[in-house]
Amino acid sequence: MRSTLISTITARCLQLAAVSTLTMLAACGASSSTDAVGGSGSSTTLGTRAEPAAPAKTITGNAGATWSDYDPATLYPGTKTLPLQYITMRDGVKLAAYVTVPADADGNAIDTPLPVVLVQTSYNGAAGSAVPAIGGADSYIVEHGYVSVVVDVRGTGQSEGEWEAFGEDEQADYAEVVDWVTQQSFNDGRIGVYGVSYLGITAIITAAQGHPAVKAAFPIVPIGDGYRDIVFTGGQVNPTFIPLWLGLVSVLGLTNPTILTDPATGLPATLDHLLSAVANFQVPTILNALTGDPDTAYDGDFWKVRSPLENDAKITVPTFIVGGLHDLFQRSEPISYERIKHNAPAKLLIGPWTHVEAAVGSGLPADGVPPLNHIELRWFDQYVKGMKVGADTMPNVTQYVTGLEHYVTASDWPHPDVHAQRLYMHGDKSLSEDQPATDEAANTVLQLPIEGLCSISTSQWTAGLLGYIPLPCFQNSNTAETLSVKYETPAMADDYYLNGPIEADIWMSTTASDASLSVRVDDVDESGTAKSLTNGIQTASLRMVDASRSRLLDGQMIQPWHPYTQASVQAVGSGNAVLVPVEIFATSALIAKGHKLRVAVGASDLPQGVPPVPTLLQSLAGALTIYSDAAHPSSVVLPVVPASALQ
Questions:
Q1: Using CB atoms within 10 A as the burial measure, which of 138, 208, 431, 559 is most buried?
Q2: Are 582 and 476 found together in one domain?
Q3: Is 391 a member of any domain?
Q4: How many domains does the chain have?
Q5: pLDDT at 11
Q6: CA distance to 90, 132, 149, 247, 618, per residue, from 137 (Å)
């Protein structure tokens, strides 16, 4: 297997395969508006609900950048938390605000106006004093000359109102909070927005609103597309993280100290939170998802509002994005960078992390990459305070490369040297560039919705919490893939470097009425141990692709954009061979010389997603057949970078 560019002859074959694939997608009900994304040899971005894909523009500057630490002396010896304050919104709802300012050696608050680092949380700012990642002041940042302002979003923590998770009312609050901050005596009119997870999402949405006081953003593991990233990946509802997350917000919203200290304020707020959880949002949302309610189970306005990628291109302030290779929002973190990079200074750091590991930058410093709060301070010192501290000279893109086990820098994402390579799945379960023959055998697996129960997915989709249990199945995917069809390359003759999203084009049929597909991409070492690199899931009846919004690389579709609307549903039917394009989330990994690349195709990945009940009932007790013949050439399109780029 070559790790260098494929030959001209092979390239022509791949271009023809791309045209063939697009034609087949159209025949399967895909959008016919393919002219919007260019022809053979073109590369594009990924589109959004509002915008089609656009020609890719690669950044090549700053290519030789290297990391250095930034840890200046503190400006103040301590911090002081001010009494709880309330911010009144346009409709009278009051939001709780926790303000921490620098203090002198005697513990007295500094009264000099300073820049503010604003955090907006759903996890109760009072709890943030114990767990800063969910909404607490970072003393390191405050002692370096910033005021920390943490605000409970409406319907959470000690704030009034009902919570609707990034709904229109909540997003309108963000701008009013920024206005309030600028009117306070502790603020000099400059604000940096920051946060982890939910807090990072509020930061990136606030940055997109364009308030002139907001000078920079530092979101850690922010979501990009509420539907596609996690809640309904592949059209399947997440059964692990989402209930845990909604429950966490509910519990923390009911843990309100003002019930005792200020009952007149605390009791009504807590009752509002309880009503929201039981009757209006959390419980109804889960039930609607599971029962297949059309307004929830299909993409639409509800999810558009809750998808920052729709507005990320409006961000004009410097933005540093942190993500993880096994994060909850693995799919969109590099795409968020891609949406911002041409409109504002932007940087991307992706570690080998699950969600909770990314929150603290686990393992840093490493390979020269400093701790996250050192990077944050440098970012805000330059772009909020206006100091010249070299934030612009930091590498544009830094990614951990699994298999190499080191951080590697590049001038851009997608990688400037990436090219598409299509490998075909064969009846003998091999994986190669050779196109299938006419008479190659198909392979069949049972449709059981329990696969992946003990796998790296179990760790990833519980935000990494269950990953702390030392189970062998989290490190070796062989058990999780027992019921899957496993296609493997020969042992690599050279190192083979993957960097970017992956598409699996699976020809399948089922003995049931519908089916789910799970596709894992693994690195298999000489001993046969399979390390899962990334994966994707897809409901067959939601296979329609909008080619005008899909990502092309070298003229081949490498990241399909599925509409996931009720109108896009296409019947599968028993015994019918259909093509199902599966989006596999971006990774960065080195398949070392002597190792094999495996693509495992199965019928489910339970920790990541399960179809809503109506679809699940149509998929049970079936057998899934994967085709590998010339008329039905199942394949995978890989983003290959010359291994020499790692040097």
A1: 559
A2: yes
A3: no
A4: 3
A5: 34
A6: 27, 6, 8, 24, 50
